[in-house]
Amino acid sequence: MLIELHKKLKDLLELAVYIKDIKGEDFSSIGNLYENLLEFYHNFYEIPPERISSLINDYEATLKKILLKAEETLNPYEIVKITRHPQRFTLLDILENVYDSYMELGGDGELNIDPAIICAKALISRRVGDEVYFHQVMVIGHEKGHGEEFRRGGSAAPWGNEKALRYMKMAETEGIPIHFYIFTPGAYPIEDYPGAAQQIARNLFYMSKLSVPTISFISEGGSGGAEAIGLTDLRLMAEKGYYSVISPEGAAAIEAKLKDGRPPRELVEKMAKALKLTAKDNLQLGTIDRIIPEPPLGARRKDYDFFKRLKYEMIKATDEVVLQTRSLKMFRKYALSKQTPESFSYFVNWELSEDEKEILIENRYKKYREMTRWAILEPKGFFKSIAQKGAQLGQSIAYEVKYRVLKSSHKTFKKFWEDLASESSLLLKPVSDPIKTVYNLIVGKKVRTKIRMPGEIESESDFYVSPLALQDKTVTCPQAEKYGCPDLWVPDLYGEFCGVCPNCGYHFPLEYHWYINNLFDKGSVKTFNDEISSGNPLNFEGYAEKLKKAREETGLNSALLSFEAKIGGISIVAVMLVADFRQGTVGVAEGEKFIRAIELAKISRRPFIALVHTTGGIRIHEGTMGVVQMPRCTMAVRDYVDSGGLYIVIYDNNSYAGPVASFLGSAPYQFALKSTRLGFAGPRVIFETTGQPVPPDYHSVENALKRGHIQGIWDRRELRKKLFFALLTMGGPNLYYR
Amino acid sequence: MKDKVLIANRGEIAIRIMEACEALGLEYVAVYTKEDEESLHVRLAKKKYRISDYRDMNDLLAVADEEKCTAIHPGYGFLSENYRFARRVVKRERPLIWIGPSWEAIRDLGNKLYMKKVAYQLGIPVIPGSIEPIYNEIEAELKAEEILELAQEEGFQEVSFLVKAVAGGGGMGIEEVKNLEEIRPVFRKLRAYAKRLFGDEGIIIEIKIPVFQHLEVQILGSKHDEYVHFGTRNCTIQSPFRQKRIELAPGFCENISYEFDPKKVEEEIIQHSLNLAKHFNYDSVGTFEWLVTPEGKYYLMEVNTRIQVENEISAKISFIKNKPVNLLKEQIKVAFGEKLGYSQRDIEFRGISLEFRLIAEDTKRGFIPLSGVITKFDYRDYPWLTIRTHVPKDKPYTIPTQFDPNLALAIIYGENFNDLMEKSKRFLNEVVIEGKTFKGEPLATNINFLKEKLSDVYKFLAV
């Protein structure tokens, strides 16, 4: 009896610590209460037993009152603290309490590929009447541990995300649904193989066409780390969870332009509010689908009611996803309404047929395609939009007829002709490799007729002259000490040398106009969707002014240019992230423009090129609206690549974070110019997270090449030539000129 | 304001430019590097600056600005054919006069392939071969077959090919191929080499002219659309690394019998050279190099857009209105925008002239340039002999290792061929160059090589 009371007291003590940690010592004198409780706890066996019971009841009542009051006054930053608290439930608690049995894959405990990621084969059961049905599911998620060091607070290392991908594939093979649980402050920002950014991109790319139902549950959704396992058919979120583009501390450090040290607490709280990171906010923004209610101040590891509810929600969500591939909308709604938290009225088989898998993937694409579209500003009247839709439809039909109907017969004939030609050439002249011969001849001819090789001298007026070149002065190459480079005359450097030191190959940064003017055939660049711009979806203080300033300074409406152009006569669709506009960060408008451009490339069967002048990541002022551009755009990439196109990414200057970890990093062909800095997180973030200083060449292209991120290092002086050869030799069979 | 010339070169050409400037009444500034402190051009210069390197544009322009120079003479070698430097000189905020052709001409004529293409389009004979870069081996093989047919039509026997990297030069990125089967492997090898070394994969294929004479035409153009020539030179006698050793003017000799009409060939190559010069609005001194075969066929090889080392032999045999010529003076005058003041009809050619390049090199061991200290440099003065050198006669001179090892140019003038040969032999027998290498061995020179080769002048030679 006494032992039970002691146990209860211990629970109360834990609750007091919890409230104190979250609300602070001064909240309703919780600090004092905690001191008293602690004293009580220490002197437990000296106090007369008859008093203990009433004392405990008193304390319980007080704590409950405080708890309710705390819940009422809960602010976003306190929610962040809840999700980070060691007493909060973790994935292992869920596996114990929600699932009937489970087995960890890829190691458990410390003996693990990555202890921050848990993959488990689990059984989840439902009762329908007297029958009990078991479903197999794959559970993949982050494990924060209750303060265990080796879990790194749920920060998945690159190989942790790779492990997640491996078991996703396994679930796909076995045809069982996947439940993802996101408990991460962000991915662990190290670039060791397979590379933080690269692996997240790979995961997203694969998840966008995973042919099994996927459900995610977000408790702590830290930007890219969350997305690595967050592209799912249905996204649930804990009521006291947060889902954000950056931690409030990180945002505050950026806002205060801090180089090091801690940002002031008021600013952090302000940021937590401004980032709109709570479940309610995210539901409003449309980045999640449903909120799972939690007890006051959040569920902890012993809140069994919560786990029961979670189990019900997970089953129901999976049912919903499965039913969406099957039945009519009306029936589906009715059927789902019959499933109540108390009991299930019928059983849904979670296995999908081939047709259903297709619908599933289609539904997923539609869902992400629509996400955040409401936040785009696009001046458009009703008639104009109708006309545009009509034109789009007409265009896609025209392309369809041109390439699918006419081109295929043409292709068959061409193939026949090629066979014939190569055979006759075999008779005429013994050549070792007839197919190669024909191919090379075609390539060779194209080179001669279509492109002007750099050896040729072009007249002066053909060149775009960078405004940087209009000064009579010299600059010193930053690598002069190492390679003994002579000082460079600015007009030569930014003119003929394309901003490259001829001695050591160091690339100086150039403005984005240089690329637009010098890479493509003269006069072939036509931009489109220029008018699309981001609003201020979060009503982030000061963001509207910053956007306005950027618009005025650059004359652009977003950081992403999308345009049609030609290289050596080959028509392409391209996008370019521009440094001048808010450091090339990606928000709603940039994502939408990217998707529209790549969709255009898909229907017109043209190659798609993404030039990265610089990208600083996802724009924090658009919060999760920006973050979901990662899965959105990656899905479009996957769709395009699978349709047999050619997607090439070229990095220059600084390319970091979200975009690299998604729609850029998932490209089959990625190249970087020589002086690019490429990676997931900047040196400062790495140092703060890992405590390890970053070597200066950590983000160099050489290292990016070594860890398999890029396929090659290019020189800016021959970018046009390289691109042209890439267009001729790479890519799928569905390009219009194949 | 008085014009002032920055002499951006060293050695004997710097001295010649100084003399020309003095004769024209121009001020000048010389530059030198640490290694050249002993050189005569430093001793003779009234105003001089020490710089880090003759190739350092920033240093040169800093000196020019410091001294308020108005023009810059690049001489030969170093930056003389660097169109970027020429462009920078005229395009900077305080532009200088570039004593040399326009930077566009340097660029376009310096690009051998482009020059060849233009020449071909103008109907000027070029060495049979591709005039566009080739990027793949099938094309290369087809091209080689085509060239072979063409060469056989032209009467070449035992044709071999030269496979060259477009961006190469000076013996780099060039390989001889004897038969068609080898084209592909050599092409692949050279393409990889060119890509690695020059960053440009372009390859051209030409036939190799087996036996030839190396002739060149000395052209002078002004900014007023005037063009004259100062005859031809014969530079067939070269070191194995295609470095000229003996040059003669004029290009053909009356005492030798040819299978063709030398007068006609000379006239034609001069006319072609002038046509090409006009096409590029060439406004300075320049040399157009030709290969002439024993059958009297001739092909344009390349254009040197600068003053040549051997310019003085042309000057020696040319007389403008009966007065001797100094091509450096002419070059400086046209650079400042002056008219020529004479036409081709005023230029007469008399006599015959020869130039020896005296070099410290081991002709028996692969023509390795030698370094060391010259203790004695002696020759007898004659009215028909001009010595151009930066080596002081009065004290020991250490040959710097970083520059080309030319010690002196001996220019000899004769009334006719036999007279010239006699004088040349006498000079070679009398000249004394003594010294020691750093190892203590006696310093070898190419005097014996020159003596041997004297019998080969005006002959068609096989390489």
TrEMBL record, chain A:
Pfam families: ACCA. It is an enzyme of class 2 (transferase). One of its GO terms (molecular function) is acetyl-CoA carboxylase activity. Residues 62-325 form the CoA carboxyltransferase C-terminal domain. The keyword Lipid biosynthesis applies. It comes from the Bacteria. Its main location: cytoplasm. GO terms for cellular component: acetyl-CoA carboxylase complex. The keyword Ribonucleoprotein does not apply. Residues 481-738 form the CoA carboxyltransferase N-terminal domain. Keywords: ATP-binding, Cytoplasm, Fatty acid biosynthesis, Fatty acid metabolism, Lipid biosynthesis, Lipid metabolism, Nucleotide-binding, Transferase. It is found in: Cytoplasm. Pathway: Lipid metabolism; malonyl-CoA biosynthesis; malonyl-CoA from acetyl-CoA: step 1/1. It catalyses: N(6)-carboxybiotinyl-L-lysyl-[protein] + acetyl-CoA = N(6)-biotinyl-L-lysyl-[protein] + malonyl-CoA. InterPro entries: Acetyl_CoA_COase_a_su (IPR001095), Acetyl_CoA_COase_Trfase_b_su (IPR000438), ClpP/crotonase-like_dom_sf (IPR029045), COA_CT_C (IPR011763), COA_CT_N (IPR011762). One of its GO terms (biological process) is fatty acid biosynthetic process. Its cofactor is Zn(2+). Its EC number is 2.1.3.15. Component of the acetyl coenzyme A carboxylase (ACC) complex. Biotin carboxylase (BC) catalyzes the carboxylation of biotin on its carrier protein (BCCP) and then the CO(2) group is transferred by the transcarboxylase to acetyl-CoA to form malonyl-CoA. In the N-terminal section; belongs to the AccD/PCCB family. Acetyl-CoA carboxylase is a heterotetramer composed of biotin carboxyl carrier protein (AccB), biotin carboxylase (AccC) and two subunits of ACCase subunit beta/alpha. This is Acetyl-coenzyme A carboxylase carboxyl transferase subunits beta/alpha.
From TrEMBL, chain B:
Keywords: ATP-binding, Biotin, Ligase, Nucleotide-binding. Its EC number is 6.3.4.14. Residues 1-463 form the Biotin carboxylation domain. It comes from the Bacteria. The keyword ATP-binding applies. Residues 116-336 form the ATP-grasp domain. It catalyses: N(6)-biotinyl-L-lysyl-[protein] + hydrogencarbonate + ATP = N(6)-carboxybiotinyl-L-lysyl-[protein] + ADP + phosphate + H(+). SMART domains: Biotin_carb_C (SM00878). PANTHER family: BIOTIN CARBOXYLASE, CHLOROPLASTIC, PYRUVATE CARBOXYLASE SUBUNIT A. This is biotin carboxylase. The lineage of its organism: Bacteria, Pseudomonadati, Thermodesulfobacteriota, Thermodesulfobacteria, Thermodesulfobacteriales.
